[in-house]
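Curious: why this fold?
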Amino acid sequence: MLKVGELAALANLTVRTLHHYDSIGLLRPSARSDAGYRLYDRDDVARLHRIQALRAFGLSLADIALTLDSPAGSPLAIVDRQLEALETRMAEARRLRDQLLRVRAELVLGSAPDLSTWLTTLENTMDMTNVYERYFTKEELDRLPMVRNDAAKAQWQGMVEQARGLIDSQVPPNADAAKAFGLRWLQTFERDTGGDPALQAKMNAMAEREKDAVGMPTQIFDYVKAAVGELKFDAWAKYMRPEIVDRMRRHFATRGQEWTPLIAQVQTEIQADPEATGPRARDLGRQWMELFHDMVGTDQRDVDAFRKATATEPLLRMGPGIGDATIAWLRKALTP
């Protein structure tokens, strides 16, 4: 059996992380030594493997706890899912290897590869489509101009550079120029996702996990989110009490990162359980309301003001991947 420090070192985790997993019931050691030290056996290590795999897939600890007790969280299902992801990456690597071998063959012969060859090599090295394919079906990709359309790709790259310019010029996210940029970003996002909440939810989840791979470093990503947030806070301030707007700011600063994966999970479950009758739907509904009340509170006046703002201001419905059908599904999930 392994002591907690040994397991932490082998798993490249901190002892504090394993203590936390124990405290929330996610991974309890099978035994303790006479001195009270945690001791982990083979089954514990196998469970930790499943936990870390699910974390790599982007699930929250709360969702991991639920998934581990479902068929999707079985050891076989987790390994199959890891193998599928690995096969995708291996196929990408093989494509790049083949292209590099073609370039090498030309260089060995003393010839200079032409422009199109270098561009193909660059595309295979940096092609964002490979990342998108992990998250979207072929049919969904065909509906995303930023993947299939060169002009749309160029526009998005230009917007990333605009954000970089704002950062380099030290323009704060609450400045008028930053908020105007945030509006253009939202409008372009709406256009290129066709306003489809399911596509938006997937896109947001992918961007959170694959910032560098999709060409948007963390600094850019955080700045865009902050500018869009300031734009939306201005809209909410027309309807919400100042103290509630302040509460919402605190909420997004401390728990805002929980919304993106939750919205993505809701959109996925809508496809699996359209009538919201299963236990997973009910659990997601409870998570949603807990997060919503942390943001707005439980006073019905504030809840009504939030709903009025969202219904009245189109801006507030842009971007997050929440549509009328999403709200209707959540209401079903929360109906006893």
